[in-house]
């Protein structure tokens, strides 16, 4: 399992963002050389976990639980075939483009060692937004991306470190539950009956996801059950 590229974004103007100044950092490009990765701090004040990576809309992106976004090259390749166009590393806004790693099958709370020092923990899936759809410029993109249920993973920084393209990725901890990135995504976007089962992920569950589950339970009167 390998880190194919480390991708950083620069603030650029876009008509598809809700940022007050009309800027977005979604367009990320691979970089050469080492990049420092650390906990950026709480969302709203903290941006990306990668030094030099700009996040403009801090209300909805970045922060501790979304410090790094990873997407598999294998999934980009499948989208290339479906869309009939090349997709470079970083085009989906991912910081890490990986190879040989089942990103969507990763479990919430799973930990990855990247390179010699960086330790990350999987927190949640990516949820597609209008900026993503607008920049990619594909018809009905949010609906298509959602239906595919290969969203990629957000991660928090457990131990900071420096990484570069070509670094090895090792799964050093895999929780016993079955709440994967894909299951979490489908529960949030497609199959609401899966929501109670997300609680099996315990403390590793993203705070936003936990609030969504709690709201669902309050409205339906259901109890938490095992995810399927």
TrEMBL record:
Domain MOSC residue range list: 29-172
InterPro entries with a match to the protein in the record: Benzoxazolinone_Detox_Enz (IPR052353), MoCF_Sase_C (IPR005302), Pyrv_Knase-like_insert_dom_sf (IPR011037)
Species: Streptomyces cremeus
Stated name of the protein: MOSC domain-containing protein
Region (Disordered): 1-50
Composition bias type Basic and acidic residues, residue spans: 29-41
């Amino acid at each position: 399992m390998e880190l194919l590229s480390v991708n950083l974004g620069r603030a650029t103007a876009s008509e598809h963002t809700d940022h007050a100044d009309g800027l977005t950092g979604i367009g990320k490009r691979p970089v050469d050389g080492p990049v420092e990765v650390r906990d950026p701090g709480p969302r709203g004040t903290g941006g990306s976990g990668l030094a030099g990576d700009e996040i403009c809309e801090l209300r909805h992106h970045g922060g501790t639980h979304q410090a790094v976004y990873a997407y598999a090259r294998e999934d980009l390749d499948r989208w290339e075939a479906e869309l009939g166009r090349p997709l470079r590393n970083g085009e989906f806004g991912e910081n890490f483009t990986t190879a040989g790693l089942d990103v969507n099958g990763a479990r919430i709370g799973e930990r990855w060692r990247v390179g010699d020092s960086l330790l990350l923990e999987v927190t949640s899936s990516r949820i597609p937004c209008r900026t993503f759809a607008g920049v990619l410029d594909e018809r009905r993109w949010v609906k298509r991306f959602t239906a595919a249920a290969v969203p990629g993973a957000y991660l928090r920084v457990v131990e900071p470190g420096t990484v570069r393209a070509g670094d090895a990725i090792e799964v050093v901890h895999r929780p016993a539950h079955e709440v994967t990135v894909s299951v979490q995504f489908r529960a949030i976007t497609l199959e609401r009956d899966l929501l109670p089962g997300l609680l099996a992920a315990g403390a590793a569950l993203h705070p936003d996801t936990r609030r969504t589950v709690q709201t669902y339970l309050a409205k339906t009167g259901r109890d938490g059950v095992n995810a399927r």
